[in-house]
Design brief:
Number of strands: 5
Shape: elongated
Distance between the termini: 19 Å
Strand content: 25-35%
CATH superfamily of the largest domain: IHF-like DNA-binding proteins
Oligomer: single chain
Structural class: alpha+beta
Length: 90
C-alpha cells in the first residue's frame, strides 16, 4: 500500500480530507521521532514499539577482501512488533 493509497483509505474511513489525514500521519511520525530520541522508545498501541539501541564497537570482516575491520559503536533504531499484531497477522 502506497502512502497515497493509505491516505485515501483513511480519509474515507474517518470521514476526513486527505490533507487532514496527511497532517495527522505527519504529526504522529514527528511525535514518534521526538519521543524516541528523548526517552529511547515510542509505542504505537496494537502495532509495536520503536526502540533506540546502542551498539557497541565490534570486529567485522570486509567480504570483498576478507580483511578484519573495526566497526565503530553507533546508535540504531529498531521496531519491535507487538504480540497482538503478530497474532492478528499470523
Amino acid at each position: 500500500m502506497t502512502k497515497s493509497e493509505m491516505l485515501q483509505a483513511l480519509a474515507e474511513k474517518l470521514g476526513k480530507t486527505r490533507k487532514e489525514v496527511g497532517e495527522m500521519l505527519e504529526a504522529v511520525a514527528q511525535m514518534a521521532y521526538d519521543e524516541t530520541k528523548k526517552s529511547g522508545e515510542f509505542t504505537l498501541p496494537g502495532l509495536g514499539k520503536l526502540v533506540k539501541k546502542h551498539r557497541a564497537e565490534r570486529m567485522g570482516r570486509n567480504p570483498a577482501t576478507g580483511e578484519s575491520i573495526k566497526i565503530p559503536a553507533k546508535t540504531v533504531v529498531k521496531f519491535r512488533v507487538a504480540k497482538a499484531a503478530k497474532e492478528a497477522i499470523l
